[in-house]
Design brief:
Largest sheet: 6 strands, mixed, barrel
Number of helices: 11
Oligomer: single chain
Number of strands: 11
Structural class: alpha+beta
Order of helices and strands: HHEHEEEEEEEEHEHEHHHHHH
Strand content: 15-25%
Strand order of the largest sheet: 2-3-9-5-7-6
Amino acid sequence: MFLAIREMRHSKARYSLIMVIMLLVSFLVLFVTGLARGLAYANISALKNMPANYFAVQSDADHTFRRSQLTDTELAAARSVAGEANATPLGVQTSTITAAGAEVKADITFFAIDMTGMLAPEVTEGAGFTNEVQGSAVADSKLEQSGVTIGSTIRDQASGMSWTVTGFVKDSSYSHTPVVYINQLDWQAMKQGTVQGGGGSGNANAPYNVIALDVTAAQAAQIADQQQSIEVITQKQAIASVPGYSAEQNSLLMMIVFLFVIAAVVLAVFFYVITIQKTSQFGILKAMGTKMSYLAWSVVGQVMLLSVASLVLGILLTLGMNMGLPDSMPFELDGQTMAMTSLLFIGMSLLGSLISVARVAKVDALEAIGRTGA
């Protein structure tokens, strides 16, 4: 390490340029990773923040909520195993709303839930409502950016029903659309085609899309076994089945993988060229009796120091950039993701340095000294 530090101090300009390149590469990797995580969270935050760990869906729905249709029969069967508090119905409907008194037209997803059950959202602004009150809704705070405020009346273009927004919740999106929470009364009216005040709500209950479950793995298997018409999936499977989620994440993951590969190749080439330029010096050191392990540690130590230093600056630059990003741009980079990305970056840098180590190992002392003398 002594030799590595002395060389870096002697050739400040050369190693400063390498460090700038490593800084830009690490910043690009961290920033793209944060965007990928942010897009993922903006897509499925409503599901990710749910306390349910399993979901019962129709067996032929291909794990997709909106394709599933369940009735009170399946709900009663699920509750007989999980208990009434741990099995609650969920209705999912994508639609377009307008707001009275404002030029607002937004795509949203209705979540019909039991407002006293485990899926009831935590209202951060305004107030919630009860299961007995029709015509009230709680919406994701992203609708505020569209001009919707507490007290605004939003209208569903498909059914013609209207709701008064009583409160807002944070981080509640489904398939990149804000979630609007309504109760089961309004869900029944919507599905039976009756507008509020239109008279009657029909005799049969409208089907639900999903049954959210907070159960053990054994209970989930028991529920699936006793009802052949349903399939019980994990929260992870439900998230992966959100329309567009897997394709979006796979594309971004491929970009990140290529960034890591490009970073390793670029750094490996830079250090390999520098190692070739120092062939005679390594030969002289070998002739003086310097151990190969010392020379290898010198090369790896240089890469380690430059990687860690550039990574620290890259993290600071990424966090600073995040503070200046607009709220509309999804970006999420938690400590765990940052640590994993940093370790992978350092690992790829060290892996690239092994090419230089292999080159040093092949240096013949007499040949290098003869080349210097010539």
